[in-house]
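Troubleshooting entry. Yesterday's outputs looked truncated, so today I'm pasting the complete records for two proteins to confirm everything comes through intact. If either block looks cut off, that's the bug. Protein one:
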Amino acid sequence: EVLLTPTKIYSRLLLPILRSGAIKAYAHITGGGLLENIPRVLPQQLAVELDASRWSIPAVFSWLHKEGCLSDEEMTRTFNCGLGAVLVVAPPDAQRVLRQLQVHDEAWIVGSLAHKQPGGSAVVVRNLKQSLLNASAGGQLEARNSERHENSITPRKRTRVGVLISGTGTNLQALIEQAKCSSSSAEIVVVISNRPGVQGLKRASLAGIQTRVVDHKLYGSPAEFDGTIDRVLEEFGVELVCLAGFMRILTGTFVKKWTGKLLNIHPSLLPSFKGVNAQKQALQAGVRVTGCTVHFVASFKH
């Protein structure tokens, strides 16, 4: 219901103040959030510094930040984070304008202008993460607990996941980013590639995840190859196996052992656009609806 509430139209409230001549610039914060809307009303040499602790952030933004695993930049580039409109006012006029606004709606003095540094951002938002935490229900208590008792809180048990790859690891990267979220139920403990030197191994290493190479070319049979992968998974205590761009067919023995614990992900709605470059295939086909597929892998008797 909160997300479906129509945006406020500020023209009636702001017209008398705008006509008074006290407003130097006015930005309505819509799509593009704080980072893209405010610079549109500023001279190129100026930047604005906002302090998120100075205004009230609605709890829905805290929820979006947490459940969407969104970065601070994504939050401020996409949402207004509680600032529906921003007015630029000279310091001597600020308190008077603030009082006029507060008669009709919530308003705050949230920041100041400064000369933009070469190569610097036009908008800097301070204290956003803490303010989003405080906006959540019980956020202040949660913040104190995380600061004072970080080591005493028992973390939620996460499922130990092993990921099998063969190439660049673009699907793997999405899994890594999701696993970083506090709301994730998964922990990637090992990434196994059947090809050495691929980009996916580098992605895993950069994320601090253990990697192993089990080169299929070095094994005399598929059973030997699968058996080696199985031993690596057991070594790391893997509870769930995810095939993310893994380009080998696994034996029935391996699949049977991991039945109910073996997932495959593919960046298209199967059976359309199989194999590599699924997104490119979908674009070239001109489809209007696309997505991804996640399914359990199972073996069947013929």
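Protein two, checking that the full record survives here as well:
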Amino acid sequence: GVILLPITIMGMFLGGFLIKKFKLHITEMAKFACITFIIAYLLNLLYFTCSCEVLQVAGLTAPYSGLKHLSSPKNNFMASCNADCGCKLDQWDPVCGDNGITYMTACFAGCKSSTGTGKNMVFHNCSCVEGQRHGLGNSSAVLGQCQRESCTKAFPYFLALQTACAFILALGGTPTYMIMFRSVSPDLKSFAVGIETLGGRVLGGLPAPIYFGALIDETCLKWGTKNCGGSGSCRVYDTKGFRNVYLGLIAGLRAGCCLLYIVLCVLIMKRFK
């Protein structure tokens, strides 16, 4: 927000300045808005190159180190190293082992003792963790999920791409509004603004969270459990599936918008040539 909000404001003001500076006709504004949207759409496709690996959770997305699973293939959280620990499957208090793998709780890591309190808590003698310097069962784990290096490295590129897309979209936003004001009769301008706002809410603002949320939920690998029973929030997503579903849906919707922009541009050029 700190980065994108000023960039968006700058793009909107610059778009208005270009209209005033070069005294763009409505046909030229239509071309300008269409071109900026198509460029932003093509840049948007580069989001697919920004990858982030799935969180490595023992028994869910990563196997226990050379140990035999004791539970069903669907829930492989139990292994020979934590079979006698009495771990609860509905708990989620992740710890990061020396091996870079996240465990649902310290119990699933087979940890026997702990030192420290709060965020500084460290668990010792973890029977399921095989560290780089220690053998199996002699390693430790810290509270919290393990960091993913590829996510950290890809984030600056993702942010730069998002900034460029936001700027170009904002650049064509002001000409788009000006097209609406100049293409309708003066007595219908207020009505046109109302219809435009209504269309945006009905087609985008209201239904989008429903179908976006439904598709995103399909990529969840581990659901949390509420205290009163029932499904809670998602703990681990299939990040590759999440990326493909989320970005693919956006790309599909914007492809339709590109066609509408082209149709609008052609109609305006025929009417005001």
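Both blocks look complete. Sanity check on protein two: The chain has six helices and seven strands.
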